[in-house]
Amino acid sequence: MNPSTEPIAVVPERLPWRHTFISLRVHNYRLFAASNFIAVIAVWMQRISQDWIVLQLSGSVAAVGVTVAMQFTPVLLLGPWGGLMADRFSKRRLLQMCQATAGLCAATLAFLALTHSLQVWHVYAIAVVLGLVTVLDQPSRQVFVNELVGPQYLRNAISMNSTIFQLGGLIGPAVAGALLSAVGGGSAFVFNAVACTLTVVMLSLLRVDDLHTAPPTPKSKGMLREAVRYAWAKPTIRWPWVLAGAVAVFALSLPVLLAGYADHVFGIGASGYGLLNTLVALGSLTGAVASARRRLLRLRTVVFGAGLYGALLALASFMPSLPVFGALMAVSGFCALTFLTSANQLVQTSANMAIRGRVMSLYTMVLMGGQALGGPMLGGLAQLWGTRWALLLGGTVPAVVAGLLALWLRGKHEE
C-alpha cells in the first residue's frame, strides 16, 4: 500500500458506545470541555449577531465578507508566529491572555450596541483585534488538548472538541436569531464577554501537575523553515493542507452567503438566518460524533469529505425550496465536519510533539487565512452575480480539487 494513503490505526478495536466520549474521564479535560461548551455557544452568538448587524447597517453582503476578512487576515499574515509562541511558551498562559482580550472586545461591542452607537467600522476594528487574538489562541488551543489528555485520548479529545463546537453551533445561532428579533444583538456580546471570563477562571483551576506538558522548544534559527520542510515531506500533512486551502477560500465562509440567502433569496430575516446556521451545525454535530468512533485515519476520508461538501453546496445553490435547501445545508455540515475533523486528526497525529505547534499554526494559517480571502471574495461575488452563483462557485472549486487529488492518489496507489 502506498504510504500516502495507508490508514493510521488509532484504536485496536471499535469503541463501545459508552467510550464514545472517553476523554471526558480526564478531570482537566472535563473542566476544559464544560467551559469551552459555554464559550463556543457565546462565540457563535457573537458571530451571528455581528454579521447580521453589519448586513442591516450596510445593506451589503459584501460588507459581511469584509468582516470575515478583517478577522482572519491576521492569521494569514502572522499564523506561523503564533505556532512559534505555542512551541516555546506555556499554552495555558497564552490561552488565558487570549481569552481575557477577547472578553474585552466582546464587552466593547456590547457597550456600543446597547447604547445604539455601534457602526460598521467599529465591528471591523474589533474584528482585527480578534484576529490577532486568534493568531495565538488557535495553535495554543490545538496543542493544549494533548497536554490535557495525553497521547492515549488525543484523537477522541479532538473529536470531542469538534462535537462541542458543533453543538455550540447548533444552539448559538438559534439563540442569537431569537435575541436579534426580540432585543437586538447587544445581549449576545454581553454573553460572550461573560463566557470569556469564565474560560480564564477555568484555566486557573486546572490541576497543573496532571498536565502532559512537553518541554518548551528552545529558540533557534530557521524554526519555521524546518516546520514547512517537515510538513511538506509528509503526504498525511501536505494533502490536508492543500484541501484545507481550497475549502477555506471557497466554502468555509458559508455564513456570509447564508446571510444573503436569508435576506435576499428566501426573505426569512434574522431568525431564519440563525435557523440556516443551526441546520448546518446539526449536520456537523452528527459528523463530529461519527468521527469520535472512527477506528482508522485515512487520507481518502479527508479527500472524500472535502469533495462531497463542495458538491453538496453546488447542488444546493439553485434549490428554489427552502426546506430542500435547509436539508442540503444539514448534510453539507456533516461532510464539512468529516473533512475538518479527519484533516485535523491526521495532521496532529502525523506531527512530532516538538514541532506540532508550528505545524498546526501553518495548518491554521491556511484554514483560517483562506477565509480572509474567501469571505470578501464570496461576498463581492454575491453582490455582483447574485448569492446563488457565488455559492455555486464556492462549492464547485473544492469539489474539483478533491476529485483531481483522488484521481492522482489512485494512480499512485496503482503504481
Outline the structure in words:
This protein has 415 residues and is mostly helical. The chain has helices at 27-58, 61-88, 91-114, 120-149, 154-182, 186-205, 223-232, 235-250, 254-265, 269-292, 299-316, 322-350, 353-385, 387-414, and strands at 8-9, 296-297. The protein has one domain: Growth Hormone, Chain: A. 80% of the residues lie in helices and 1% in strands. Strands 1-2 form a two-stranded antiparallel sheet.
Mean model confidence by pLDDT: 82
Order of helices and strands: EHHHHHHHHHHEHHHH
Relevant CATH superfamily: MFS general substrate transporter like domains
The helicity comes to over 70%
Low-pLDDT segments: 1-13
Cα shape? globular
Instruction: Using the coordinates shown, work out and report the CATH topology.
Output: Growth Hormone, Chain: A
- Oligomeric category: single chain
By helix and strand content, what is the structural category? mainly alpha
Cα distance, first to last residue?
A: 10 Å
* Strand arrangement, major sheet: 1-2
Keywords: Cell membrane, Membrane, Transmembrane, Transmembrane helix, Transport
Main location: membrane
Domain Major facilitator superfamily (MFS) profile: 28-414
InterPro entries: MFS_dom, MFS_trans_sf, TM_effector
